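Late entry, written up from scratch paper. The run itself happened at the end of the previous shift, but nothing got recorded in the book at the time, so transcribing now.
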Amino acid sequence: MHDLLIRGAVVHDGTGAEGRKVDVAVRDGRIAEVGRVDAPAAEVVDADGLALMPGIIDVHTHYDAQITWDPTLSPSPSLGVTTAILGNCGFGIAPCPAPLRETVVKNLSVVEGMDLDALLTGTQWEFESFGEYLAQLRRVKPYANVGVLFGHSTARTAVMGQDASTRAVPTAEELARMRAMVRTALDEGAAGFASSFSPNHAGYGGLPMPSTIASDAELHTLVEPLREAGRGVFVMATGPRGTPEYMEDIARRTGRPAFIVTVLTMYNEAAPDVALDWYERCAAAQGRGHEVCIHTSCQPLSFDFTLRDPYLLYSHSAFDRVKSARPDDLPAIYADPAFRAKFRDNLAHPGAGILFYGDWNKMELPDGTTVAHRAAELGRDPLDLFFDTALESGLDTRFIAKLFQNNDAGVAPLLRHESGVLALSDAGAHLIYFCDAGFGLHFLAHWVRETGTFTLAEGVRKLTLDPASRYRIPGRGRIEAGAWADLLLFDPATVGISGLERLHDLPGGGERIIRRPRGVHGVWVNGTRVFDGEAYVPMDGGPGHVLDRFDA
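Output as recorded:
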């Protein structure tokens, strides 16, 4: 007898093959049969008129702290995600000696736009080592499957303490300890190793995140265990320093896949050829036998923010004063002509890989009017209008910066390119600015149904088997006998995501933005329904696995 039988759905199996109307039976967490199933089942779901696909695999999340207090990993499973990779950009929370816990979460709060009080209040510290962290996640029993990348900045902090963000060169003994940590983490089940050189990644008090000041020699030493272990991926928020050629060298040294994360690979109307050039250079690396790939976002990158917390502007040196300022000091800084002059100079000479290049047509006021348009109407300078508008509201004005990936014609070639993998939701991070955790449902709605850029079968492959294969995740991403029963049941005619919704449900009443699913009729993880289309299914511990075995 089967545990579950989903009858009559059009099944898209993840391989890119055309969907077919068949039954899917599940037993002991795995798919038992696909086809005409006559055997009885404890639960039968009539799915006539709906589509069934493998659960979405999100390889770029930041649930490292949230998972310790929230086993649902809200909102990702409700948005169709059944497997999530944590620890991206090297900003995990393990290993972490007890005296450094506050340092780690303070940095995390700034670099990933998280509520500090929620992190300090909510994070459950039942570990110090990476292996102990994985053990805690198993006790948490998450609703989704999770894999964890071992982080460069986290290791640097654990070994170098408060010096991690200020001292570029570790001692030989410190470097050896970090290298040993990487190897041990891989043996304990890490999905790989992650780092960042991004100029956008500053931590608490304006200090750089530790890995961003590391030398090439340090990074080369820390990726050696990937070669020794013969497994694991390397993922890096590269900024302009980590070019495709730089990452190809890492892939050559390790023999492992290397993944690029940077806004330079997003379509930018101010420099429309840059992103595709990065993709083509990755394709050239692949042609030479080195697996270099890009995390590709399928959604416009927008920030909903106030000047109380202007994260997206921190890569401009004028904002160094803001990073370390007390809240009461901000109005005087923003009114200071010297500050504005320096910011104006920053925009006139922008660095590569930053978030905001000074196009005021991309910065919207609360009524949807752009700063550029309003400034032209009033005969004013847009930069001055921007700051003056914020000051007049006591810094409460909510701006929306529409930064990258806002042109379908420019984005479509990137999504179709075989050098990319759909990712970059940043789920669990930047909670006060945006929520892109529903990237998969958005992809099915916009890029499959609305624009026809992909067929449904190919769209499903891009969200499931493709990331599973590239990340070497076994038994996930396809519907076939023997595979784990991670499943998403949905209506192709209505699937999508809601608008943004603000909640105050984090520990300590912290604020976050979420989206809700549309057209989702059920989500199963390892054969257990975790979301019924309206709400999470209450249970004493979720069915998700902590992934600790990856293919070579």
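The domain at 55-300+405-476 is CATH 3.20.20.140 (TIM Barrel).
(Scratch paper discarded after transcription.)
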